[in-house]
What does this fold into?
Amino acid sequence: MATKPSLLGARIKRREDPRLIQGLATYTDDLKLPRMLAAAFVRSQYAAGKIRRIDATRAKARPGVVAVYTFDDVRGEVGPTPCIIGLPEGRRIKHPILADGVVRYVGQPIVVVVAEDRYLARDAALDVEVDIEPGPVVVDPEAALAPDAPRVYPELPDNLCSTMAVQNPKVDQLFAAADGVVKLRLVNQRVAAIPMEPRAVLASWDEGQQRLTVWTSNQMPHGAKQQLAICLGIPELRIRVIAPEVGGAFGAKIPTYPEECLLPWISRRLRRPIKWAETRTENLLNTAHGRGHVEYVEAAYRESGEVTAVKLKSIAEIGAYPSMVGPAVPSFTPLMVPGCYRVQAISFEVLNVYTNTMATDAYRGAGRPEAAYIIERVMDAVGAALGLDPTEVRRRNFIPPEAFPYTTATGAVYDSANYAATLDRALELFDYAKARREQEAARKAGRLVGIGVAMITEICGFGPSTHADPVERRGYWESAEIRIEPTGNAVVMTGTSPHGQGQETAFAQMVADALGIDLDDVIVLHGDTDVVTHGVGTFGSRGLIVGGTAVRMALDKVIAKGRRIAAHLLEVHERDVEFADGTFAAVGGGPKIGFRKVALAAHLWNRPVPGEEPGLEAVARFEPSATTFPFGAHLAQVEIDRETGELRILRYLAVDDVGNVINPLLVDGQRLGGIVQGAGQALLEEIRYDEAGQLVTGTLADYAVPRAPAFPRIELDRTCTTTTVNPLGAKGVGELGTIASPPCLVSAAIDALRPLGVTHLDMPLKPERLWAAIQGAQGGRS
Amino acid sequence: MKIAVTVNGERRESDVPPRLLLVHWLREELGLTGTHIGCETTVCGACTVHVDGRAVKSCTMFAVQADGREVTTIEGLAPAGKLHPLQTGFWEEHGLQCGYCTPGMIMAAAQLLADRPNPSEAEIRHAIEGNICRCTGYQQIVDAIRHAARLAQEKR
It folds into this structure.
């Protein structure tokens, strides 16, 4: 019998796509229930202040308005806003679902208006009068650290949410022995995730069943269910959370937000379903932002180019309240600061700072892009100081392949890598030497052409669960369940909650391949807490490496039971049964039986297998014993217009190493999307508040995201270094691009302007900023 | 106000408030939820439909402005049960991830291919400049549109 070609590693088009390309998918705002109400929020127009008066008389009198609620209505009934990160004693802040007499950021929900449809609700919301006595505002995180700064929470001694510090005495020794030190102040600006689908929630309380169903655009539905139970005081078993089609998330849909908590309460109170869909302005105002770091970095280096030690002070904007996992995000920055390099010792201090701004939380990369940006800027600065090519200085610092598993200066245990091989591949494909020659020629012709380099690694698939804080109420494992139907078809349930990653395809490939059945005979279900075994969710590039490994384990269990049933039917010993290509066969050319016949026998059970239960299904949970560290070498060539400051990307090449690949189509999609999203941060994107805490980037006309014409064809290649952290040998891919492209593009821009004497630029590299740098460097000469 | 609009080839009559946006009429009254709302300000293109054969952002057009005209949405782009070459192209080339921008992106691309059956990469990128995708980085969308152009050429 011919062996079927393996589906693993095959470029298989997605099984999700037919519904999506025909407009047949169902996102939360597409849902409509009988007697459904609409909600609209009245939000704070001030960044800080006391609410003197709320008058909803006119709003309540409008036709179609059903109810108007303020904090007085929800006090003690719903809240506070979920946060699953333990904060130090004495610093635990409870953020109310609706403002409790005090406002702390622009957009904070104060009043919710409930009406028969969204037009009426929004009209009525405009009629609610909220009188606020403005208070002192602090927006800048460094200013917030000053002893006399206005306090976001007057009951706290300062504006610190939490801190983290490690002083390594070895650092001082290495600085004393250094040949040189580079000092940098880096801004990793606050950005917005901008999933194309804004947040949306539909809540429906069933009085007969005494059960709540919440459809929500969320990437962690089981987590949302747990948090809603706590927030609403409803037992978990009376709550069903469904994340239907989710139109992008990027970390910003990890939190369970105030609106998500409030709508179920309203539905239960009014006994009617109620829906709210965020406007894009609300999304920019009140969906968690990402990044927002100021980093003070010092790095000690030797004449050889070796970077020996780093001192880091990270000032991280938490915003006005601790979001779901927000205060944990900055801790990944010092952890990953060593990057691909043998930095011997690191001292760091992380200051998580409250300001009168929207909360920050995970955003694609979550703490690791900040780390990569720090160490890559250090490498470029050291290279420049020593006159070394940026690739050479990195090469001199690489952790060598034979050193893995390698424990870094901050205690991360890297699984496997060969950085030099990946860089070499990138240099070869880029024809780096030729590119440098062309750059030289372009410079002679007066053009500002630069080549940028980034070597990055990141931590994926967080675990083990021994790190989990009880307040998280979840570990770092993931669940999978496989139910084999009597026909032998497979229903797969994953605790991950994919929203574009393509796991319905990747997991179907794994299951079809393992069981020898067709892709069409596998269905992958997710995102419904009534359907799927309790799981954790999709974040931190864990979908395949943790969730997929759970699928692999469930498959192993199904096949093991299938083997026992087959052995009984074939009347041979279990250990003499082999399973390949969908057939259980006795070794040495003995009798055989197909998987589908075994599935039928398992359900028919007319030949019961002693010691076994009928049926063929398995639940598995993968608990990661360690994390994986994919890596990549990225190169970019840019040109900056001397007259306008406009930066054009001429070339961008990425050679990434994500270990084994199940579907290269999906992997490339993740990489391309990540690179462009990261380029958005590098070149365009910036959440800006004015001094009064007013958001000045509140629409997509003011907050610029990348568009198609700005990019050349991005060139991709891969190397493959597998891992033993999981049986798939896969390392994770979701966040590589957004980690790599910001330092790569900034490296290229500084390289372009270096002949003018420019040694530092901050993101985003907007034309006016580059123009000003060119003007400044030329001493005002044009 | 009473309106009569031909939507996906079918005459639909309705009595709508003058301020009702076309996208809300399509989605909420006709149940055509394939057209999405991403910004409500004409910036993102998720709501792109065709009005009298031209790509229009339906979040900044009133339903009453469609009176007497022909509207095509993603649901009506291809005959039932069949895929338009662009839908095939997006599927084959992985031109989508979360899928939220996809219907609008396809409708914008359909206008491009109607105007220029064999567009260059630069022309494709220019044509979809008004449509934001946050997942793909656009490259596979460009490939998808080229794929569709090839398919359409072969059919001729």
Q: What stands out?
A: The mean pLDDT of chain B is 97. The helical segments of chain B are 22-29, 85-92, 102-115, 121-127, 139-155.
